[in-house]
C-alpha cells in the first residue's frame, strides 16, 4: 500500500474510520454499491501491490455485482430469441423484450417510445443519423451541435447537413448562442451531451429541449455520461431521443440503447440490414419492418440487453439523495485537494456554475457528475497516468478523451488527465490520487519512464499480468494509441 502524504483536510484524518465518519465527506466513506473487481490488487513497479484504485469509471465502469449474479442466473437459459419455440428460447425472448420495458421505465420514456438495443452510444447516434427526416428525398433540415461533444456525438453528424456552435465561456451564453443558431431556422435536430465526458459539467437538457422545440427542431441527448450519474426523465424533460452505453452503466456486456420517438426511427434507414429486420425479402428487394427490429438485424445481444436492464433496475432503486451525496463528497474532496496542490490545475468548460439537473432538483452536487479533469505542470498527462498506475496502483484516463475540438479550445492540445468515479468508489480512491500527486510534486518520479509505441510506460517493467492475460504491461500498448 502506498503511503498517504497528501495533507488531509483538518476534519478528515486519512485512514481512520472515526475520522471518516465525522467529516463532511462521510457520505463517501464506503462504496454505495458492490461492484466486481473492487478489491483487486495492482502490482507496483517498486515491488508489492496496492488495492487497485479505479478512477476510470467514465471510460468503462465495473459491473455491478447484482448484474453479474443475474447473468449467472439466466445464462443456463440463454438460447435463440424471437424465432425459437423451445423452452429456453421462449425464456430468452421474454428476457430480451422485457428489457426494453425496464429501460424505457428507467429513462421515463413515453409508452410509444422505441427502445432499440445497439452496441453502445456511438452505435445509437449513428443509427439516429440514418433516420433524419427527408423532404423530397433530401434531408429536411440540419443537425446542430456544440464543439464540446464527444466524437460519438459529433462525427455522425458530419455526414449529414449540419452546423456547429462554439460554446461560450458561460453556460448561459452558450444557450444564447444555440438559440441564435436555432432562430436562423432550418435545424431539424439539436444533438447535445447530457454531461461532458471531459469535465463532468451537466447541460440543462430540459431548457435545451424547450428551446429546440420552440424552433421546430427535435433534441437528442447523448447520455453516455449522464445516465450513470443522474435520474433522467425524457417525458418530463420533453427529450425526443436519448442514447447511452451499458459499459458505462455498470453492465459491460456489449449493449447500448437508443430510446425515442418512433416516427423517424420507423421511417429511417435500417441500421443493420439482415435477418429479423424485414417483413419480406425477395431476391433483389425487401420490405423492412418497423419497430426496434427494423434496426436490430441479426441475432441480438440478449445477455447484454438483460445486463443493461438489470443495472438500470438497481440504479432506479437508489435513494437519489444518498447517491448524489456519495458522488458529490468524492468530487468535492478531490477538487478541493487538487486545488491545494501546487502546479495542479483543474479544468472546466464554463465559468458559471452548472444548473441543477432537470430531474434532480437541488440535490447536492447536481451540476457536475463524478468526473474531474486536471493537469500537472511540467509533466505530460500520459507520464502522470503511467506514474500513478505504476507507483500507486491508480487507474485513470489521460489524453484528449475523444473530444479533440474541446481540448484544443481549452488550450490542452496534448491532453490532460481525468479522474472519474461512481457507485463502487470510495473516498480513499480520491485520497490515494491526491497523495500520489502530492508526492510527484514533492519528490518527483520514483522510477524511469520511457515512451513505447506512443505511450509512457515504466522502463524495465517486470510486473506481470494474471496467468490468463496474454501480455505483460511492457508490451500491452504495442499498438499506437489512437483512441485518445
Ligand atoms: C459523452 C460520451 N458520449 C459518447 C461516448 C461513446 O460511448 P461508447 O464508446 O460507449 O459508444 C462516450 C464515451 O466515452 C462519452 O463519454
TrEMBL record:
Residues 464-484 are annotated as: Disordered. Keywords: Lyase, Pyridoxal phosphate. It catalyses: (sulfur carrier)-H + L-cysteine = (sulfur carrier)-SH + L-alanine. InterPro entries: Aminotrans_V_dom (IPR000192), Aminotrans_V_PyrdxlP_BS (IPR020578), PyrdxlP-dep_Trfase (IPR015424), PyrdxlP-dep_Trfase_major (IPR015421), PyrdxlP-dep_Trfase_small (IPR015422). Residues 55-433 form the Aminotransferase class V domain. The keyword Lyase applies. GO terms for molecular function: cysteine desulfurase activity; lyase activity. Its cofactor is pyridoxal 5'-phosphate. Residues 469-484 have a biased composition (Low complexity). Belongs to the class-V pyridoxal-phosphate-dependent aminotransferase family. Csd subfamily. This is Selenocysteine lyase/cysteine desulfurase. It comes from Arthrobacter oryzae. The lineage of its organism: Bacteria, Bacillati, Actinomycetota, Actinomycetes, Micrococcales.
